[in-house]
Design goal:
Blueprint: H1 7-16, E1 51-61, E2 74-84, E3 92-99, E4 105-111, E5 113-118, E6 121-132, E7 146-154, E8 163-166, E9 170-173, E10 204-208, H2 214-230, E11 237-242, H3 248-259, E12 263-269, H4 282-288, E13 293-297, E14 307-311, E15 315-319, H5 325-329, E16 333-338, H6 341-354, E17 364-367, E18 370-375, H7 380-390, E19 394-399, E20 406-407, E21 410-411, H8 412-421, E22 425-431, H9 432-435, E23 439-440, E24 443-444, H10 450-455, E25 460-464, E26 477-481, E27 485-489, H11 495-499, E28 503-508, H12 511-528, E29 539-547, E30 556-561, E31 575-576, E32 578-581, E33 584-592, E34 596-605, E35 608-611, E36 617-620, E37 624-630
Parallel strand pairs: 4-13, 11-12, 12-13, 19-22, 22-25, 29-37
Antiparallel strand pairs: 1-2, 2-6, 3-4, 3-7, 5-6, 7-8, 7-9, 10-16, 11-14, 14-15, 15-16, 17-18, 18-28, 19-26, 20-21, 23-24, 26-27, 27-28, 29-33, 30-31, 30-34, 32-33, 34-35, 34-36
Helix pairs in contact: 2-3, 7-8
């Protein structure tokens, strides 16, 4: 990745770095006050009495984090703003633009917080800015001056509609004057367009690792590329806010879309841009290709944790799945795809806010079948609590991180226990690595006691230890209530997700969608619940017709699979097929609806067993279905 900087290099850094000042200091502004705003425009310059730079500084950061190797040099920076005390709720950002010597630029957006009073104004700022001197794509070096500016959500002319007012760019660090990009892809005023489908498709969901949800993302990007090529003068967009964005196939498809003229705007968690996070290389590839990528940094341990994809204003994807290889092929994940215009619009407005635009009222109950909310400002965990309170028969939670937290004197987990106490059947499937403190990349976590607490109060708890990869996880985040509705999205159930992170949560009353999630839960139980009882779940029946003309007199055809009911890969214990309609052989398989099984056909005869060629077949048991196959 990078080479270690010399002592002379560090001396140069110290000479360039300014000295940070304590909270009592009153540094002089390092940039001229912005001119007064003219007219109503999202992105107008803020009058100095509304928003102005109060001060800034930098220092060379010693290595204090064991996760960062000593060869990575980091310059830390602080920026403070002077903000008019004109309203109680404020959204203030520090925007940073770093040019590198390979021509790429790294843009980050830091949330500022209240840091004290300044007479009739307030002081807002951040001291969490990180500048990676030699940490650009492929260890590129910062080239020239680093720029910064301030953003504030405010209603300049009092017409009741907020916009983002900004200061001019100023030089935060480095030699010379900062030169802003000629064409700024993240300028205030960015909109995510809406182009509803004439006949919206029904919602669909895919589950990893069996159904490759990433293929939905690839297909949608391809569709936008084709539209752009057919309409080269039109505006066609892929806007996405993804916590982890590193899957090689998706990254290359995004680069292809950018090269084809598609308007890409990608947001990720800013900490993922750290160069020592070398298992996440998608950002390097995207920045090197010139794709507009914005790192969003929330204070402290907060994260931009959404997994939102918007495709040409027509479709949206969300769910638990990050755009990374392990999420496609190892983890238990879900990806929800919807063309519902109201849902697409709600996510588009949220994307604009994540990109540093105004946060406006949106989401909530869209219709009788849909609720959508975004955290932390819309508290989606509260809606989850309402759903638990309203349950009359069953509540099934499938949650990667399930750790107790309280809000307004209440707790989601106390609500689960209360539901169990009133006779509702309540279950929780959670990731064993999170709940039991297993080893993860060399770090052993704590044994959280939330699951044990629930278990003692009548909640059926299953701890899933995913074996599909060394660090694979049960990464779902969904809730089923009375088998009538499903809630899913990026939202985990713990403190940071409720109060700090950017999160999303969608509730749908859609029987077909609910059945898909119900089936996924049953499959997880079959895999990870040692007390699984098939009789407790709805039975599914699958009629299988297999065409095989190559059998000889005295031979039989057997279906054998990975479940005990299918012989556990022992042909002698498999399911024999009926040859009455030869060359079509028939069998009926009965299993709990939702269970997935791998299987093959085996020809058995006096000369031994002949297995069919190719990969194992994979089938998920339907409630009632038929399947036609041919011997391979």
């Amino acid at each position: 990745m990078s080479r270690a900087p010399s002592l002379l290099f560090f001396a140069a850094l110290l000479a360039l770095a300014g000295c940070g000042q304590d909270d009592a200091a009153e540094p002089a502004p390092s940039a001229p006050a912005a001119p007064a705003a003219a007219g109503k425009a999202d992105g107008a310059f803020a009058p100095a009495d509304v928003l102005a730079l109060h001060g800034s500084g930098t220092w060379v950061d010693p290595v204090e984090d064991d996760a960062r190797p000593p060869e990575w040099s980091v310059v830390r920076a602080w920026v403070d703003a002077r903000v008019a005390n004109a309203r109680f709720d404020k959204r203030v950002f520090v925007e940073v633009d770093v040019p590198y010597d390979d021509g790429s630029r790294m843009r980050t957006l830091y949330t500022a917080w209240h840091r004290g009073a300044l007479g009739g104004h307030e002081r807002w700022g951040t001291d969490e800015i990180e500048l990676y001197v030699d940490g650009g794509p492929d260890a590129a070096h910062i080239d020239g001056a680093v720029g910064a500016r301030l953003r504030l959500q405010h209603d300049l002319d009092g017409d009741g509609r907020d916009e983002m007012v900004v200061t001019p760019w100023f030089t935060l660090w480095g030699e010379g004057d900062y030169a802003p990009p000629a064409d700024d892809p993240w300028a205030p005023g960015l909109d995510s367009p809406l182009n509803p489908a004439e006949a919206p498709a029904a919602d669909s969901v895919r589950f990893a690792p069996f159904e490759d949800p990433g293929q939905v993302v690839l297909t949608e990007i391809d569709r936008v590329i084709e539209t752009q090529r057919a309409d080269p003068s039109g505006r066609h967009t892929v806007h996405a806010a993804i916590f982890n964005l590193s899957d090689p196939a998706i990254v290359e498809k995004l680069v292809e879309a950018h090269d084809a003229g598609v308007e890409l705007r990608l947001i990720t968690d800013a900490k993922k841009l750290r160069p020592w996070s070398d298992w996440l290389r998608g950002d390097d590839r995207l920045l090197r290709a010139g794709v507009p990528l914005l790192g969003v940094r929330r204070p402290g341990l907060g994260a931009m944790h959404d997994k939102i994809g918007l495709f040409d204003g027509r479709a949206v994807t969300t769910g638990s799945m990050n755009w990374e290889h392990g999420a496609r092929f190892e983890n238990h994940e879900n990806l929800l795809h919807s063309e519902d215009p109201a849902l697409v619009a709600a996510f588009a407005r949220r994307f604009e806010a994540l990109a540093g635009g105004p946060l406006v009222a949106h989401g909530g109950r869209l219709d009788e079948a849909t609720w959508v909310g975004f955290g932390p400002d819309q508290a989606p965990h509260v809606e989850a609590g309402h759903l638990i309170d309203a349950a009359t028969e069953r509540v099934d939670v499938v949650m990667f991180t399930a750790k107790d937290f309280r809000y307004d004197g209440e707790s989601l987990f106390a609500k689960l226990a209360a539901a169990a106490a009133r006779g509702v059947e309540v279950s929780l499937i959670t990731d064993a690595g999170v709940s039991e403190g297993l080893e993860y990349f060399g770090v052993v976590g704590e044994d959280d006691q939330t699951d044990e607490w629930l278990e003692a109060r009548g909640v059926h708890v299953v701890r899933a230890d995913n074996a599909f990869g060394q660090y694979a996880s049960m990464h779902h985040k969904f809730l089923l209530v009375d088998d009538a509705l499903v809630g899913t999205g990026a939202l985990n159930w713990y403190f940071d997700a409720a109060f700090v992170n950017d999160e999303d949560f969608v509730v749908r009353r859609d029987p077909a969608l609910v059945e898909r999630f119900r089936a996924e839960r049953v499959d997880l139980l079959r895999r990870y619940d040692p007390d699984f009882d098939a009789a407790e779940h709805p039975e599914g029946t699958l009629e299988i017709a297999a065409t095989h003309q190559g059998t000889q007199f005295g031979e039989t055809l057997v279906l054998v699979g990975d479940l005990p009911e299918l012989g556990a890969w022992d042909p002698a214990a498999g399911v024999a097929l009926d040859p009455t309609d030869w060359p079509r052989w028939r069998a009926r398989v009965t299993l709990p609806a939702g269970v997935r099984f791998r299987w093959k056909l085996v020809t058995r005869g006096p000369d031994g067993d002949r297995w069919e060629q190719g990969d194992d077949r994979l089938t998920q048991m339907p409630r009632d279905g038929e399947l036609e196959v041919r011997w391979r």
